[in-house]
Amino acid sequence: MKDMMLELAGGTPGSPLAAVVEKRADIFALTRKTHDAALKPAEPGGLSHGLRAAIACRIAALNGDEAFLKHFRKALQEAKASDAEKRLAELSCTGGDARETALIRHADLVACEPKRASGADIELLSKAGVSEPDIVRLSELVAFVSYQIRVVAGLRLMRGAL
Amino acid sequence: MSQIVQDFTVTVPEWRPHVTPVDLDTATPQQLDALQVTPSNRKISDYVLVLAHDPETLKHRSPLFNAIMYNRGGLSRAEREMGAVAASVVNRCIYCAAVHAERYNQLAKDETAITKVFADSTAADLEPRLKAILDFAMKLSQSPPAATAADMADLKKAGLDEEEILDLILSSSLFGWANRLMHTLGEPVAP
């Protein structure tokens, strides 16, 4: 089988890792669908495809995952991200305006230290003009990418032990 | 105003959202479809109604969650719940930890393991197989993920086969996702 996460884990079709992944093909197919729903939804609301790809790049970088960083940089290109969005993909950038600053502050916090997040952080987003649907869209994006990065980290360890 | 629950517990708290849940009476057809609302199924938790603000991801989330936690074969149901608890302890998601600790206790017919995990976290003194599962899942749940080849070797030494290991990776990673929603979009309050 051909699968995004299998590729990111360094597994090739026909490899022993692919054979294990194949046994849970339904889960990997649903993960691909959720990836597209989080990164390039039909109705992006206030989070453009470019902004989503930029945030995903940050999460990959914060997790030190080069393969995912490459994957999301490609998504950034495909989304025809603006120059401002491309800048946001770099960890050194802290946002061009209040809304961007609030969005990436929250994304970085939830990616790295979710246990420290509280209601006050949601208030900061609201005060910066982020709508409730956009708060949920942002949260799903960060949470999903965090899941994907962990699955692939686990698959790489499996691949090394097969 | 009810008290926020700060400590790990097997008594499932209530969940108070920080974001307004979608109102079923004004929900869009797409939201109703993602919520799988039918005339006989209008009882939906506030958590899922909050997630309905993003119907495109919610639509896949429920079947994906069920597949990872309930698919046939592979890792036992109880051990998948331990994977969920391990992530929830690392991320201090009190609500998820309570729900899945309760399920673990029911499935394993044992309360001592969860008591130790809640008290001692990574230092919990468990039988070798469960300890290998807890260690791996807790390390994978860190940011960045910190599980190593030695942790993988410990899983194999403890007797887990490849399908079981894949299910453990999936169940603990799934809670890296769920915790980041449940713990950030609302808070656990005393029932």
Account of the 3D structure:
The complex is a heterodimer of chains A (162) and B (191). By secondary structure, chain A is an all-alpha fold. Chain A has helices at 4-8, 16-22, 25-39, 49-62, 66-78, 83-88, 98-112, 119-127, 132-161. Chain A has a single domain (4-161), classed as Up-down Bundle (AhpD-like). In chain A, 70% of the residues lie in helices and 0% in strands. In chain B, 60% of the residues lie in helices and 4% in strands. Chain B has a domain at 74-177: AhpD-like. The model of chain B has no long low-confidence stretch (mean pLDDT 96). Chain B has a two-stranded antiparallel sheet. Chain B is mostly helical and 191 residues long. Chain B has helices at 29-35, 46-51, 55-70, 77-90, 94-108, 112-120, 128-141, 149-157, 162-185; strands at 14-17, 186-189. Chain B is built from nine helices and two strands; from the N terminus they run βαααααααααβ. Chain B is globular, with a radius of gyration of 17 Å. In chain B, α4 (77-90) packs antiparallel against α5 (94-108). Classes of the chains: A mainly alpha (162), B mainly alpha (191). The interface between A and B is large, with 55 and 57 residues.
Multimeric state: heterodimer
CATH architecture of chain A: Up-down Bundle
What gyration radius of chain A follows from the Cα positions, in whole Å? Answer: 16 Å
Q: Major sheet of chain B: order of its strands?
A: 1-2
- Averaging pLDDT over every residue of chain A, what do you get? 97
Terminal CA distance of chain B reads 11 Å
